[in-house]
Protein 1
Amino acid sequence: MNKAVICTKHKKGALIASRLKRIGLDVVEDTSFDTDSMGTFDMEIARTLSPIDAAQHKAKVATTVNNTQFGIGSEGTFGQGPYAGIVNWCEEVLCLYDAESDHAIYAFAQGPISVNTVNINSAAQLIEITQSSLGQRWMITLPSGVEKGLSINDIHHLIERARVSFPFTLMPDYRACYCTERQEIIKQAADDLIKRFNAKCPTCNKPNFVVNKTVEGLPCEYCGFPTHQVKRRITTCDYCHYQRDEPVSTLASQQYCQLCNP
Ligand SMILES: [Zn+2]
Ligand SMILES: [Zn+2]
């Protein structure tokens, strides 16, 4: 087994460790490096890097700080997805960095997150909201600052001690250890990493040999006009640059044709 270090204060290693064992990686958490210094969900610290660059930076730091060959970086983003304004969307990227070859594999997963910021007007509403998302922790802004990682008991405590009174705003704590829905998406990203790790280049046998470019223009089945459907899938090896170019053998359905179905 190869040791792969993930710097996290939010227990991300535990989410992915059993999965990544399957590809021979022994995931070890390093809690000493504060990845929050690179930006936080509540924007107390602004994020400056793109999610991919942030994940890569975290993975590289993990290898240098711990003097290991493999490092893992994880970065999540919340916001606009395919149902912008209706559903809160989470995108996760995992980076596996190999310091020996100086190569990185990026794996992805995304999905909806049902928990949202809500205005709480009564005890009954508080119970309803917290029970519909068991395991989720919350944040509340107090005059003294933001209280984070709150369980339902913590919130009751704040109410009993008159530190919080109705109505108040309840915000989900999206940190990985406090957001169960996000944990599932991180696990899916780990599954994508496994798929990529196992996809070996036929020439050099290095990983991550997956389709990384598509070309549109598949001809319409009826009139032959090029559509926006994919006509070629291209896979280029990150290491030796061997390229596989696979033409799509079918024709596009008329429904995608600008001439037949304008
Ligand atoms: Zn057509
Ligand atoms: Zn190759």
Protein 2
Amino acid sequence: MTSLLVLAQLDWNRVAVKSVAINVSVAIILICILSVLHISSTHFGYPPKKVYKSIVRICFNTTEKWNPLSNKWKLRVFRRKTVTDASDSSPVEIKEKIKEAALRRQMMITSFTSHTNAWRLIHSGADGFDGITVDVLDDVLLVEQHREHADISHLLQELPLQFPDKSIFVKKRWSRLSEHRCGEQVAGPRHPHILNILENDLRFGIRLTDEEHIGLFLDSRMPREWVRANSTDKRVLNLFSYTGGFGVAAAAGGAVNTVNIDNKNSALRYAEQNYQKNGLPFDSRTFFKCDVLYYLKRAAGQKGRFDLIVVDPPPRFKRRHQRDFVAHRDYHKLIALCIGVLAPGGTILAGLNALKASDEQMDTMIEAAAMESHSTITTTGDITAPPDFPSTPDRPVSRFRILRVSHTPENPR
Ligand SMILES: C[S@@+](CC[C@H](N)C(=O)[O-])C[C@H]1O[C@@H](n2cnc3c(N)ncnc32)[C@H](O)[C@@H]1O
């Protein structure tokens, strides 16, 4: 009996030693993998934190949401949404998909008559072409490949057959190489790369071979229309103005004055050209190169300067000597700052184009801005993307809230 007990004890000890050994080896292997990742990502100039985040995201299919009211990050686990890919489609299927996409937009195109000649023909997964978009820009078709593995070869064979009069350009937006990101012509009649398009009879310059975006965000067509209809006799501030699309719409709608703020000289130069193309008035204060947050903080003393503010930030931007602005985390601070320069009873047209922020989160951040600025904000309307930008989980599109601010704070922060 005693010998049996001793044997059992020995056996148990062996099992325990074995499992400790396994655990230690697994830990050593993990440490080695993490060290290799850490050293190689640092070596290639990529922040290791981002690598770890991506691993967690890939393994657990997670996303993080910032809740400005509780001031906390919330980790969400979600199912990956499926989108339709074109890589397995036959040429016949590609042809059908293009026809269907055009048919879906037929009513909208008919309503444009000759006043608008720029719209989206294919919007990624929503039209069965995951990671690919195609825009019609007057006599040009612009194919943008947003993911490296999105196969555009069949599409590039089919488009010239269906649209023989159009010049076809391709931009590889996924690439870090400037020669890929700049558009290049691949088919159709030779084109000078620069053109004017019409949107509701307003003229905008388009540059197809710039590394950056082409010069106008087509998905903001409806908010531009709203601004034009609601700017009469208003003082309008256009923040993150880019090429001045909203400023042009406001000036065309009869604004008393318009101020466009952007931190890029090139964008402001193009904005000025867009005003000129439409014969709209401007002076030395119409275009101002400045960081928006800096401008709003400096201007906060001048309460009531603007009746309408359009604020449409990029999802993220860098700030000198300060933490990056991340829209899905910091949006409420931006809106609160806007209230500091808004006239009593004024309106903010607030845009948020970030896949990471849900509609619900956008509203939460607007509530947080009201609290932060001691104001009452009433959302009186939404402006979503137009019908040529059907919703799809793989592409962000413009989304705007019309905010009436009924009380401007005595001491805006
Ligand atoms: C998404 S675009 C804005 C689109 C614009 N609202 C429109 O509809 O045409 C972003 C613009 O913000 C500008 N930008 C980015 N960070 C900025 C900052 N901190 N201050 C001012 N402008 C900034 C960029 O130069 C770019 O022109």
